[in-house]
Automatic annotation (TrEMBL):
UniProt keyword terms in alphabetical order: ATP-binding, Kinase, Magnesium, Metal-binding, Nucleotide-binding, Thiamine biosynthesis, Transferase
Endpoints of the signal sequence: none
Record-given protein name: hydroxyethylthiazole kinase
Lineage: Bacteria, Bacillati, Bacillota, Bacilli, Lactobacillales
Pathway where this protein functions: Cofactor biosynthesis; thiamine diphosphate biosynthesis; 4-methyl-5-(2-phosphoethyl)-thiazole from 5-(2-hydroxyethyl)-4-methylthiazole: step 1/1
Stored SUPFAM superfamilies: Ribokinase-like (SSF53613)
A molecular-function term among this protein's GO annotations: ATP binding
Cofactor: Mg(2+)
CDD domains in UniProt: THZ_kinase
Catalytic activity entry: 5-(2-hydroxyethyl)-4-methylthiazole + ATP = 4-methyl-5-(2-phosphooxyethyl)-thiazole + ADP + H(+)
Annotated GO biological process: thiamine biosynthetic process; thiamine diphosphate biosynthetic process
Cited InterPro entries: Hyethyz_kinase, Ribokinase-like
Length: 264
């Protein structure tokens, strides 16, 4: 099977899936826009009273623990519990889980109890979930010796989910196969929230097809769009990147992909 299925972009744009997102307090606007730009419909909530209605309408769910607190714990747990009747794809982003036992203990407890479709984090976050030795560094990946390809495969196996470890190389696994992609731009790690945007795009693609190929295609779309922007500063790059995301089509991403392969 091919790693990417670029036709999924047209499917997102034509079906306009509703993506229910519980985000951190730092990046909600850019995350909502990423989902909107690619052709889906972002929905963020804070009231537990709305959970049953929203989960029933959602086509996918993205949970991000970047600014986790008790209210968010209750909200996310209620969403996962309600989703047991609907089985919507769930992306879980364990932001900075290696830097706080509050985050780690709660996340492990939740992942033991509820299934998620895809874990999306950086290598340090994946290592923390597996209790591997690693020097975590807040929202950044930090330093460690483990092979990231093995980490992501082990994460997928352990949590019975897809796993995506982002970084200079992005690794995607279903616990058996591991796929790598290396489309990149040095501005990605310089703009806070690109990881959160990526998680919400993975949820968006999973909304139209629940497959490893959809996870890879989300990463490929996100990184090829960012790679194609050549700018002289973080802000100009980010604006250009968002322009490209909002215009990207199956035809245009195929051209970017072919050009990128040609340059390898
Ligand atoms: N050092 C890097 N160079 C280029 N791109 C990177 C680098 N690190 C991460 N990326 C890209 O940035 C995006 C966000 O990944 P990452 O920074 O790992 O997430 P997070 O913000 O959750 O730590 C991904 O698309 C990834 O491909
Ligand atoms: C700065 C910050 N602090 C808590 S969450 C957050 C944003 C994290 O974004 P990302 O995981 O995409 O780097
Ligand atoms: Mg992150």
């Amino acid at each position: 099977m091919k790693q990417f299925d670029w036709s999924l972009i047209e499917r997102v744009r034509s079906t306009h899936p509703l993506v229910l997102i519980i985000n951190n307090a730092v990046t909600p606007q850019i995350v909502a826009n990423a989902v909107n730009f690619i052709g889906a419909s972002p929905m963020m909530i804070t009231a537990p009273e709305e959970v049953p209605d929203m989960v029933a309408q959602a086509d996918a769910i993205c949970l991000n623990i970047g600014t986790l607190n008790q209210a968010q714990q209750e909200l996310m747990t209620a969403i996962l519990a309600a989703n047991q009747a609907f089985h919507r794809p769930v992306v879980f982003d364990p932001v900075a889980v290696g830097s706080s036992s509050f985050r780690l203990n709660w996340t492990k407890q939740v992942l033991d109890r509820y299934p998620v479709t895809c874990l999306r984090g950086n290598a340090g976050e994946m290592a923390a979930l597996l209790h591997r030795p690693w020097h975590s560094h807040g929202i950044d990946s930090g330093e460690g010796q483990d092979n990231v390809s093995e980490l992501v495969q082990e994460c997928a196996r352990h949590f019975h989910s897809f796993a995506l470890a982002s970084g200079p190389t992005d690794y995607v696994s279903d616990g058996i196969d591991v796929e790598e992609s290396t489309f990149t731009n040095p501005y990605f790690p310089r703009y806070v929230g690109t990881g959160d945007m990526l998680s919400s795009l993975v949820a968006t693609f999973l909304a139209v097809e629940n497959s490893l190929q959809a996870v890879s295609t989300a990463v490929g779309t996100f990184t090829l769009c960012g790679q194609s922007c050549h700018d002289r500063g973080s802000l100009t790059w980010f604006n250009h990147f968002n322009d490209v995301l909002s215009e990207i089509t199956t035809v245009e991403i195929t051209k970017l992909f072919e050009k990128s392969e040609h340059n390898d």
